[in-house]
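Dear Dr. H.,

I hope your travels went smoothly. While you were away I took the liberty of generating a structure for the chain from your last submission, since the lab meeting agenda had it listed for discussion. I wanted you to have the full record in hand beforehand rather than looking at slides cold. The sequence, exactly as received, is reproduced here:
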Amino acid sequence: MKNTQNSEANQNLEEDLLPEYEFNYSKARPNRFATQDNEITITVTLDSDVAQVFQTSEEVNQALRAILSAIPKK
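The corresponding predicted structure, in token form, is as follows:
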């Protein structure tokens, strides 16, 4: 006995899929479960010798801000 249900389901699935869909984003809402963080986060990889000096990202940011304050503004 053949299981025709699976072959029919596959055939219907192929008929339902279109090559392109147009989505109406005017009704889209923000994800209430996602964080609402507007800050830009950039990941930087430190060399091992630099990473031994700075243990946290706060220490790195503090050092970079000190360097930035020493640079003359244009």
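Two observations you may find useful: The chain has a mean pLDDT of 82. Helices lie at 4-16, 48-53, 57-70.

With kind regards,
E. W.
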